[in-house]
Write a structure and sequence with these properties.
Blueprint: E1 8-11, E2 14-17, H1 22-33, H2 42-45, E3 65-69, E4 75-80, H3 82-86, E5 96-98, H4 99-113, H5 117-123
Antiparallel strand pairs: 1-2, 3-4, 4-5
Length: about 120
Amino acid sequence: MIPFPGWLQMTGRSMCRSPQPKSTHRSHCALQAKNPQANPPRAVTGPILLTGLAHCASCGGAMPLRTGTSKNRNVCRYYTCSSAARIGKTGCRGRSIPMEKLDQLVTEHVADRILVPERLGALL
């Protein structure tokens, strides 16, 4: 319920300021949430499978992709706890997992649990 026009309401991760009457506030907020200028498309269409979805089991912080280079110049990609990187070991002990390993585990789990013949019929 909106107490007065222009009231700020939380919708997902963004603030929604609606100059509309109460009846169109919901649709205004829905359009604002889908605005590509407010929500960058790279988070949806990027090449990293778990962008914005992976969270640390210890502290609940986000686990963005981090890269590193080995001695023989191979680039290593890891999902690493952002709290540990930002705050240090006092914020979190700093979990890291190779990108390929976590992507494979998630993909196999989805295939085993969701993409079963009984559910595929309902999905199609």
